[in-house]
Amino acid sequence: MQPATAKWYDRRDSVFIEFCVEDSKDVQVNFDQSKIDFSCVSATDNIKHQNTVELFGEIDPKESKHRRTDRSVLCCLRKAEAGKSWPRLTKDKTKCNWLSVDFNNWKDWEDDSDEDLSSFDKFSEMMNSMGGDDLPDLDGADDEHDSADSDDEKMPDLE
Q: d(Cα 14, Cα 77) in Å, to the nearest integer?
């Protein structure tokens, strides 16, 4: 028996683990509040794989699920506390040689998320409602016209 190779990535409300076992059979995934148990048999070489992961944070076992494909078993662990990033998958800082970060799916959602975009949209609407049209044109297209206007406005003060 040996652990299956796995990749993981973090999202705002879920953590994803992909156990990379081709043609898996007898797949068993048990979600617990603070750990996940995975086991299967690889049909290609008949090796039994088993992984137990003590998780960094707590998950909602009822809302967590897995999906088997011909190439792997993907587990979606629903975080008990959405919006809290996981710096690592495991509770301990010990490096697991079978586990790696899935950089193809990794996204720094804390800096660039849908929620941030919606707050950006709200910010844009707020700026527009404050009369953003009256702000000077900063792209330089009407530079001469703008400066002539501002000179005219200041002329009476100089006399």
A: 5
User: What span, in angstroms and rounded, lies between the C-alpha atoms of 61 and 32?
Assistant: 5
Q: Could you tell me which residues are beta bridge partners of residue 79?
A: 59
Q: What number of residues does the chain have?
A: 159
Question: Among the residues of 57-113, which ranges form H helices?
Answer: none
pLDDT range class, residue 118, cuts 50, 70, 90: very low
Residue pair 13/27 in contact by the 8 Å Cβ criterion:
no
Helix (H, G, I), strand (E, B) or coil at 96: coil
Residue with tokens 């603070």: 34
Quick one: pLDDT at residue 119? 45
Structure token digits, residue 45:
């070489």
**Location of structure tokens 């919006």:** 83
Strand order in the sheet with 24-31: 24-31, 35-42, 48-54
> Is the Cβ–Cβ distance between 66 and 22 less than 8 Å?
no
* Residue tagged 């950006």 (tokens): 120
Q: DSSP class of residue 13?
A: S
Enter the tokens of residue 87: 């710096």
pLDDT at 33: 97
